[in-house]
Design brief:
Structural class: alpha/beta
Radius of gyration: 17 Å
Helix content: 10-25%
Number of strands: 13
Length: about 210
């Protein structure tokens, strides 16, 4: 069975190591906060928060505590707050070890498109362009195909790019793939999903 959103987030949490400062993008990546467990990870939100906790239980929400996706979150005993200028100084200054982001398309060379679809209303590009340029590792978490069944892992992106050659690892509902020389390499398969099924759902070149 393909992974659901929570299983994808749990798999993405496995990418994190003690001592990391990590930014979580909106969508599925925000769920990663629930699966950090006992690891010493500091989560950063570009709206000015360092040390995000997991989502609150129902009835315990604080409307003043939100992540970049406007979702209510919790704080930790070491949480700190600051303005956006300081937040983006961390990101642009290379202080954030990894970003876990959603995407609409990823190309086989690591190009990322995740900020707009032409003709649709866009509230803004957010911090994605700064993140992919400033962090040391970019992990994308997304569905392998769109609602029409078309692959979102492409030979070349068709949507406006967020960054060129910036993606290191892709976690989809079907498995885990790395961007390597010549295309994408299958690292792991969701339980019950075969490599052949991943290949059939992928437009991008799969290398052995």
């Amino acid at each position: 069975m393909p992974w659901d959103r929570n299983q994808m987030a749990a798999r993405a949490a496995e990418e994190l190591e003690d001592g990391m400062y990590v930014n979580l993008g909106i969508g599925i990546p925000t769920l990663v906060a629930n699966y950090v467990g006992d690891k010493d990870i500091t989560l950063q939100s570009e709206n000015g928060m360092l040390g995000m906790g997991p989502f609150p239980f129902e009835g315990e929400e604080d409307p003043d505590l939100i992540n970049a996706g406007k979702q209510t979150i919790t704080e930790l005993n070491r949480t700190s707050y600051f303005d956006s200028a300081t937040s983006f100084g961390m990101i642009r200054g290379g202080k954030i070890a990894a970003a876990i982001l959603g995407a609409m398309e990823v190309a086989e060379n690591g190009d990322l498109a995740n900020w707009m679809i032409p003709g649709k209303l866009v509230k803004g590009m957010g911090g994605a362009m700064d993140l992919v340029a400033g962090v040391k590792k970019v992990v994308v978490v997304m569905d392998h195909t769109n609602k029409h069944g078309d692959s979102k892992l492409l030979k070349a992106c068709t949507l406006p790019l967020t960054g060129k050659g910036v993606v290191n690892r892709i976690i989809t509902n079907l498995g885990v793939l790395d961007v390597v020389e010549g295309g994408l390499k299958i690292v792991d398969c969701a339980e019950g999903v075969s490599e052949d099924e991943i290949r059939a759902a992928t437009e991008a070149t799969i290398v052995n």
